């Protein structure tokens, strides 16, 4: 059986499972569509949350960025994991106790303001649309390779797939579909990693293999894997793999990812699906356990894949000959079809040179040998994890499995994001403001139409994404960090924060961060519309790192405006107190 047929069979079976679950768990009411009837077990919810969280950015893109940048991109691991701790401790149980369906609904009721609710709706849509672009991009990459179509066609197929089960099932269908998707994606991620770790180090546990010696018969046998990798990349003029960048920028980006995680609406709404307040905290704990299974493996996947690529391109090291054009491995040829990988023999010597043209000493070496530049001209970071089994010559069924896993990761998160968007439009905009008398059936129809519209918009923007999947997702985290996270925190822990402060704070954070992003990326990511270049960054801060700056502006504006205006009504202050501190807790503690 050829590889394409095997891919179609494995991916097709996984999709049949998802569609079957969506039909079985079809939402029949708004409660089931928005919050799965609040009847999800915390372990199940933790697994679904993990699938919702481990998106194309985590599964497809993160290891690729770690592979090509090294230690500096470990910030993705630290920020995303730390954000869940913040969410579990500071937000999840209190928001569940409040008992609402959506984040804008909480903000509207807590701040007794329709205006605050509408600003939250706008923020949610901007965040979720930006985030879902990364998912559609990742799904398009996976479909393009494994169905052997161009990436645009792959994106259209991904959109049609998520349309079927997300629009049909709502939160109830999405929850149980995500449980199945988690099982598929975690198996798909770990099995190739185990194979490759055994090949390179003889250790079956990838996380331990990363710090083990190279196995006999491999390049650098007997030396630590990371030492071997450092030697290869520096020989080719690249920065040392284990060396980080600016500590200030790494800390800022980690903080952006942490507080952005805690403010993501599509993750927060997962905690509205459990029966009790305590279950919300347990859900977050279980989600961390399930997430850790992938996140402890990702650094090893990135490092080992980079090592395999280097030895593929330079089988005899920098002083030896590069791979001949006619001898490029099969995985090169199959990925070139997608347009995401490309080589060019610039000097016509029949060999493919791979090196950093600006690296120390490489200009002299290139002149001496007649090289005309780096001839690995295109290597999209998003293909690395998907191509990893092929690079390592693993069996065909493993390649098919990684295809199913990558698609599961992208589609599971896309579904959660689309639900957050549709809930905000149908419940917070239409039901609460435009048409309060709409029937439950009409609201459910509006939610499904909203979700379909969001899919169309995400597909359109996904045709011209602002970066790799993880980079696009990082922009969404910055927006969440600057807009929703401060407002939620102040809503729970500050009785004095009023509607005017919250509204103006959200606007300050959202507008400042959006302007900074679009100044660099262009309006709606349209090429040629940007006016800020990388050498014009404010204090050297890249757009992906700007979230904490926007959050500080949000907090500051909210504080100043709230102190200059009237305090919240007494019943709102009592509400905040009751959400944070259960009635009778003080008396119980004094006994």
Question: Keywords for this structure?
Answer:
591 residues, disordered C terminus, Sodium/glucose cotransporter, mainly alpha, 24 helices
- Estimate the mean pLDDT confidence: 84
| Envelope shape | globular
Distinct helical segment count: 24
CATH fold label of the domain at 3-305 and 388-473: Sodium/glucose cotransporter
- The count of strands amounts to 2
Radius of gyration, in Å, reads: 25 Å
What portion of the residues fall into strands of 2 or more residues?
under 5%
Instruction: Supply the CATH architecture of the domain at 3-305 and 388-473.
Output: Up-down Bundle
Helix content: 55-70%
CATH 4th-level superfamily of the domain at 3-305 and 388-473: Sodium/glucose cotransporter
What order do the strands of the largest sheet run in, or round the barrel if closed?
1-2
Can you tell me about this structure?
With 591 residues, this protein is an all-alpha fold. It has a domain at 3-305 and 388-473: Sodium/glucose cotransporter. 69% of the residues lie in helices and 1% in strands. The chain is built from 24 helices and two strands. The chain has helices spanning 3-24, 30-35, 42-53, 56-69, 75-98, 103-110, 114-146, 151-201, 206-209, 225-235, 247-262, 265-268, 277-295, 298-313, 330-336, 362-369, 384-391, 396-434, 440-462, 469-493, 499-521, 547-564, 570-580, 585-590, and strands at residues 341-342, 378-379. Strands 1-2 form a two-stranded antiparallel ribbon. Helix 4 (56-69) packs across helix 18. The longest helix has 51 residues, at 151-201. The chain is globular. The termini are far apart. Mean pLDDT is 84; it is low at 584-591.
